[in-house]
User: Fold this.
Amino acid sequence: MKSYPIKNELDFLIARAESERSEMQTLLDTSRRDGDYWREKATAKLATFLGLEVQFLSRLAELESDYPELAAAIEERKRYLAALVSEARAMYAAWQGAAEQT
Assistant:
């Protein structure tokens, strides 16, 4: 897993998604060790999904930083992306506030 400094809300989302993927990979390894086929199958699917989520968020962050006008046009058509970025901003602000208090 690559580790980058968290500089903005999308970096925060990517780091959170990478953490979730890592946790799922640990659960997958445990399922394989335990020999639980059905749990292994389910966690493998979730680990794949979470890996794709990391890639998706990385591409979104790239668009936001390098091509903001293109990102805005896409967010206009895909309202859920605008909601995702808005929610990420709120979570990042809360995380930053908590980090400053410590």
Q: What stands out?
A: The two ends are 26 Å apart (CA to CA).
